[in-house]
Write a structure and sequence with these properties.
Largest sheet: none
Strand content: under 5%
Helix content: over 70%
Distance between the termini: 41 Å
Structural class: mainly alpha
Number of helices: 3
Number of strands: 0
Order of helices and strands: HHH
Number of domains: 1
């Protein structure tokens, strides 16, 4: 098994296949720019990591630390997802505006310098 890094592959898959889909769906549901119009900002990935981590940590509390967890896990997870879906769009809106502004400024700067668009 030496040389095989399952953790890195799992985490890469999570980010590329799952988290990016979550970002695309939240953007689409909230009329934000598509990922073709504006690449996913690192902060958007971090928002999804935060949701994932908060749910994952319920298991850590129970199975690793032996701490009590909410009696109704389904309701707890639903509340976390609801909070994410209500809060994330506002943050994504500001991140996409910043990212879009950065891309626009970069393109303008490149045009002034006579470079091709990136």
């Amino acid at each position: 098994m030496r040389g095989v890094d399952y953790n890195a592959r799992y985490l890469r898959t999570l980010r590329e296949r799952i988290f990016s889909r979550v970002v695309r769906l939240v953007r689409a549901a909230n009329h934000l720019p598509s990922t073709e119009q504006c690449p996913i900002a690192e902060g958007e990935f971090e928002l999804v990591w935060g949701l994932h981590a908060s749910i994952f940590y319920i298991g850590v509390r129970k199975w690793i630390y032996g701490l009590p967890i909410p009696a109704d896990i389904d309701a707890d997870v639903a509340a976390r997802v609801t909070a994410f879906l209500h809060g994330a769009p506002a943050v994504m809106r500001s991140l996409t505006a910043t990212e879009k502004g950065t891309a626009t400024a970069r393109a303008k700067s490149d045009r002034v310098r006579g470079k091709k668009a990136r």
